[in-house]
Amino acid sequence: MSHPVPRRAVLRAGASLASASAVAALAACGRPVAAGDPDSIKVVIAQYTEGTQPYWRRLVAKFEDRHPGKEVKLQIIDWGNLQTQINTMVQTGQLPDIANLNLFADYADADLLHPAEDVLTPEVRADFLPAFAANASFRGRQYALPFLATVNGMYYNRTILRDAGFDGAPRTRDQFLDAVEAIKALPGGLVPYGLALGIESGHYEFGTWARAAGGGWTADGRWAIDSERNVETLGFLQDLARRGYTQPNPGQTNRPDGTWPLFAQGRAAMVYGAFGARAFLDLIEEGDVDYGLAVHPVSHGAEPVAHGIQDYLMAFRKSGNRELVRDFLSFFYRPENYVPYLKTEGLLPTTRSAVDVLKDDRRVGRYVGMTGRARFDPTTRPVWAELLGVMGNDLGRAVSENEPPAKVLREFQAIAVSGG
């Protein structure tokens, strides 16, 4: 798969609803711990790129060679089918021992997962970057294992910004509005800002702008989706579209086939992108764009932050599997094994040791330092899966049809609160 980030986002917005209902049903029936095998484990991994399967085959062969008598059954599944197949495994009692996914809280809530301390050595646990470990915890206990990361923010075309009279990316919302107005006045029909509020990444885009205005999904541990700052942010995005500062129909635009090609072709001045992700970098490097990186412009005195996204590994609770699962995970997270995987997928590390190795890397070194500024969506809450299915459609429609921002966000807030 050549576009890991888009496929992952579509999965969140669509199949996650099925996950919530399937896992809830399983929890309700009180299924006991599944039977495991101390000498054999099943590992399910998502296919991110064409390099995924070769890497894991080599790793498994290397592990089995060093652990005679032990077997790792590897299954690589395309992102488009991953969550559905894992749900089927869960419902039928054919649990994997280790699985890779982008949501975990519903499985932890159903008591299906080993706590991290049961399947990781203290050394591996201490190696995770604190923000990523916290975002892998449920009700104060870590269950998921930080696996791969992207840190998203704003890419900008240096040439277009210079032509509009700016030395770099705007740092505040007022500077941003000055910039998009100046860019719109340039010849050539340029797009000042590529806004992607379609089903694939609308919640990423909105959440990033909301944080930049001092808002966000939660405040002081409580849902705050319909906060004053968030209502203002959605109105701000509606206004950008109305005034022609975006491409046509941003409410139906996704990144991989919409805003990213516009930026790669030199037609968009600024766009929300994934720092270091091959799916985006390959496009803009082929287009020979002179680009820079920045966080989104802030307002109301908000702290500049980057939007962090991570995928997880989970260890399912099966009798007798803890020792072999721990051995395999410890083997994978060794820098000599983990770093080559990060390079294979073109994504960012979640461990300190890998950061130390990659900080001077030619391709991803410039992005590694952004991981410490990452802020995350509330994926640790089980209701987040349901919310994504609703927001994937309704955020874009709110902009396309100019629906009242407060009304739209109140609907999201009601869903969040009802789910806890």
Task: Provide a compact summary of the structure.
The chain is of the alpha/beta class and 420 residues long.
What this model shows, in words?
With 420 residues, the protein is an alpha/beta fold. The protein has 2 domains: 4-150 and 309-376, Periplasmic binding protein-like II (D-Maltodextrin-Binding Protein, domain 2, 3-Layer(aba) Sandwich), CATH 3.40.190; 151-307 and 384-419, Periplasmic binding protein-like II (D-Maltodextrin-Binding Protein, domain 2). The protein contains 20 helices and 15 strands. The protein has helices spanning 4-13, 16-28, 52-66, 79-91, 105-109, 116-119, 122-127, 130-134, 158-163, 173-184, 202-212, 228-242, 255-264, 278-286, 322-332, 335-345, 352-358, 365-368, 384-400, 405-419, and strands spanning 34-35, 40-47, 71-78, 98-101, 137-138, 141-142, 145-157, 191-194, 218-219, 222-223, 268-275, 291-294, 306-315, 318-319, 374-376. Strands 2, 3, 4, 7, 8, 11, 12, 13 and 15 form a 9-stranded mixed beta sheet that branches. It has a two-stranded parallel ribbon with strand order 1-14. The chain is globular and about 70 Å long. It starts with a helix and ends with a helix.
List the topology elements:
Layout: H1 4-13, H2 16-28, E1 34-35, E2 40-47, H3 52-66, E3 71-78, H4 79-91, E4 98-101, H5 105-109, H6 116-119, H7 122-127, H8 130-134, E5 137-138, E6 141-142, E7 145-157, H9 158-163, H10 173-184, E8 191-194, H11 202-212, E9 218-219, E10 222-223, H12 228-242, H13 255-264, E11 268-275, H14 278-286, E12 291-294, E13 306-315, E14 318-319, H15 322-332, H16 335-345, H17 352-358, H18 365-368, E15 374-376, H19 384-400, H20 405-419
Parallel strand pairs: 1-14, 2-3, 2-4, 8-11, 13-15
Antiparallel strand pairs: 4-13, 5-6, 7-11, 7-12, 7-13, 9-10
